[in-house]
């Protein structure tokens, strides 16, 4: 479903070049839920933006649903839903409903399909009470719910979330987790970044650990627990970094 092959991404910062991704290679199968783990600056958002066709790799290739991100970006955009942390993509002067209707129109949904999808998503996220209020006066949690609904309005087969529970209270975070379980049951392919180990442990089949632009580990969570003889994902992540640094030093 998603194939990332030897992807490197370099940015120019003033007169210096910064490498955000270094020869990253792994794949995501159809129906898998993969958690991207790593500290701030590890390259998680850059990788998600590259998968979403928003950034072109400096080296390597990314294919999504059989389409190359450089050659066929429009085909990929039809099949993915994307939400980046801190970027809701909503228009403050429009109501929540009007925002969702606008994005549904961009994806070519009919009026009937749009109405059904909005009603379903409003019920799922408990948004009916403020669906016809302007987004500009919403709390951060309310905006995030509408933004997640906007991401799912066209019923995409592949969903990319970047720090999706940032700014959400406990109740809203639980709603998001229930949503991921529902999407998994529908066979959706999900990749989401997080620094919350418990969230990844609860929701993901596989995990991809990143550090300073490099892939430290990728694989099945249960197999990882078995090989490390612990289910403490935070401990596993930190020990992976320590072992990596020791290997570089030797």
Automatic annotation (TrEMBL):
Organism (species): Halalkalibacter suaedae
Q: Which SMART domains match?
A: AAA
Lineage: superkingdom: Bacteria
Q: Does the keyword Kinase apply?
A: no
Keyword Coiled coil found: no
One short Pfam name that applies is: ABC_tran
- Keywords, ordered alphabetically: ATP-binding, Nucleotide-binding, Transport
Query: Mind telling me what this protein is named?
Result: ATP-binding cassette domain-containing protein
Cite the ABC transporter domain residue spans from the record: 2-237
Q: Which family does it belong to?
A: Belongs to the ABC transporter superfamily.
* GO terms of molecular function: ATP binding; ATP hydrolysis activity
